[in-house]
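hey so i finally got around to running the thing on that chain from the lab meeting. sorry it took forever, my laptop kept dying and i had to restart like 3 times. anyway pasting the input first so we r on the same page abt which one it is
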Amino acid sequence: MNRLRSTVPFAILCGCLLTTGEPGRAVAQPNAPATVGAITSITDPMIRQVVQRRDDNVGHIFVAGTYTGNVDGFQGSSTLMPETLGTPLGWTPLIDVTIFEGHFTAIFRQPAGGFYNLQFRPTYQGQVGSPVTVLAVGVGEVFITAGQSNATNWGTPTGIKPHLLVSCFDDGPWAGTDPYYVGSYWRWGYDPQPALDGSTMGSAWPTMASNLAIMLGMPVGLYSAGYGGTAIENWLPGSVLVPGTSTQPQIELFARLVNGIEYFTGRGGFRAVLWIQGETDFGDNTDPTVYQANLRRVIDQSRQVTGVPVKWMVAQTTTPENWFRLSEKLALEKAQAAVVDNVLTFPGPNADSIGTSYRLIIDGDPVHFNAMGLTLLGGYWGIYVYNLPGFLAPGNLP
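ok and heres what got predicted. didnt touch it at all, straight out
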């Protein structure tokens, strides 16, 4: 009897919940929110990618991918990989989000450090979807290296295993002629660096990058835009180094450099172009006045065409210890130094100060470096970069 009576108030309560003030009329229940969609792919960032830290010591990591279903935003989070330094973040909304027909782009603001394992997930009307993971993305320092053979891999291999925080960017089978870098990827920054000229020996860049990574405690990324044996005229806008064929596009070094500048600018920026070139012009007896004008044009046009205030560091390089043509050697070095304004263009090391004891002598020509010479050159580059104005203190970056 008591049990039967206890059901009556419950029935009355249910009736109240289902009616309005008008007898016999049911209340319209809110629709259940639609199910949140899913991320189906992430094309940016890539595994082992390094993103340039900006003036606030934070990197703007460009995120791009595809999705299905209902999505109105995205979130990201980060965790540090073992034995690395940085500031991991919990789930944070991505900014500058663009969503269009199954594709999206956004920015994830990540403090310098890493490598980080990143996770991204979609949101919809307050719901969150399943996360996807991108492994080993760093925020630190990124450099474009350019010039001739001493900017690529024509020295004796040093045997140096670069620091694990060093990465290099390979721009894929079309060698950077495609501004979207189809087929590109990042890898550990060992020699030979990915280079368009096909060089397969050693470079100074793993030494430089390793030293910087150790001093800064953050990742360092490299992209090689150099080409062995080139004179300054080969780098002028519109100059065609290799004509195209039915299977391979033509090679224009300035256009490729511009593609690199624009590519990295769209993915967080880079610190500077590191330029080492002049050996061919010394051998060809290029007028120093002409050389200076052409180098200045390449630098100025790299900024005008891209709209980016690109920082350049220019090494002095002609040949070591050539006493028979000392005045010509000094004149060309002076022309290289003359483009420096210490505003956007800065001095790099004097590579000619590394003498013939540290060189490969091939047919009497000491242009390339042996293993010790490359180690010295990489060390010098690291010192000059480390002392670049604004490098350690916050400063404006592209």
